[in-house]
Amino acid sequence: MIETTRRGSRRLTFLVLAAGAGFFAMLQSLITPVLPTIQHDLHTSQNTVTWVLTAYLLSASIFTPIVGRIGDMVGKERMLVASLLALALGCLLAAIAPNIGVLIIARVVQGMGGAVFPLSFGIIRDEFPAARVSSAVASISAIVAAGGGLGVVLAGPIVAVLGYRWLFWIPMAIVGLTALAAYRFVPESPVRAPGRINWLAAGLLSGWLVALLLPISQGAAWGWTSGRVLGLLALAAVLFVGWALAEVRSTNPLIDMRMMRLPGVWTTNLVALLYGGSMFAVYAFLPQFVQTPTSAGYGFGASISQAGLLMLPMLVAMFVAGLAAGRLESRFSAKAQLATGAAFNVVASAMLAVAHDSRLEIAIAGGLVGLGIGLAFASMANLIVANVPASQTGVATGMNANIRTIGGAIGAAVVSGVITAHPQASGLPREAGFTMGFLLLTAIALAAAVAALAVPSGRRARGRRASAATIVESELAAEFATMPSTR
């Protein structure tokens, strides 16, 4: 009877985590197809409306690892509730925003909800039996991946029927109920990391993330050789070095560099950087390609809704692959799944470069991308969870998500520069620009596949992971034992 109750509680916990993570992921892509609509409705410029995306990106990048670390320290359940409430509040502000300034602030508040990813993985590791952790983490990863794709699919129909503000009203209602369910049903995590928040490290981390991602996301508008872009990139390098030194020297690091140097962690993060570069660029430019008017000599002149439907094979494939990943891990290791996912991405990007003249070719390539994303999301999360101490699951998975986002921002910026380098007289990109862009994505995906082969695997790797994690845990425990009591 007790075990049956526990299983029911775990199912409810999983549903709450899935809803929170899925809707945050959806809000990442839900807005992208309707930026022109928002620009027109709020009477703003194209450069200004892009801050609706940039503000969300910067906010999520800052808060994901920091709140993940706080969750490791003070309790993952309470920080999950706080993250969901921030997400719901941001949706409310966005839904009633009278001008672009308020909408941008709302998106900053929404970005605070990015910590639902690492917190969810940490709660699963704390609450689920060891035999169920891989499949549960993979399933959440599948929902995260599918949520991002679902946003592209749903944006058009919702805007057409209800208006763009319902892109915020609907998530607000569901996320608000999810926060209530999390408070009521998700148990508080028994695993805690000792220590206090290192605010110097938090400030330096936030500083270099903003200084890096801001010029990358705004480089096309500001000019890649402008003083603002070059100055911010130089500042990012300086702040990164300062952050790394502060973390290494700190007795209470925000992100433990010993953990980040574990072979299974840094190699997986390298794959995340490269894979993010290819994955997010496909998300960004494949819908743009199919919406290009046929008068350009290519494209299909698809509407937002039609472009979303062409993305359906990608969405379905990534969801199915993600769900299958955890169940296959006993026979098909996380490393093998990660390399296979990257290989699918190589094939898909190469296919888009040479065969993009029919909707069927786009659908097949999209399906291959979806298979790759589903396997990669699940395997990366599982590799990080398996390689770090339980007390650092939140911050480690948060940094992995952040590194994937950084890769995505860099990849999207670079590919955008290639695609738009030599526009037609009409201002539309040339087909050759898209072809070169997809070839570049093929090269990035190939680099990710090669990097995946460097991820440790097998018994020796498990032994190294266990011993390294034990060392980190014991050192943290020793540091905690020498701290003065706060009572």
UniProtKB/TrEMBL annotation:
InterPro entries: MFS, MFS_dom, MFS_trans_sf, Tet-R_TetA/multi-R_MdtG-like. GO terms for molecular function: transmembrane transporter activity. Keywords: Membrane, Transmembrane, Transmembrane helix, Transport. It is found in: Cell membrane. This is Drug resistance transporter, EmrB/QacA subfamily. Signal peptide: none annotated. Residues 13-460 form the Major facilitator superfamily (MFS) profile domain. GO terms for cellular component: plasma membrane. It is a multi-pass membrane protein. The chain crosses the membrane at residues 12-31, 51-68, 80-98, 104-124, 136-160, 166-185, 197-217, 229-246, 266-286, 306-326, 338-356, 362-385, 405-422, 434-455.
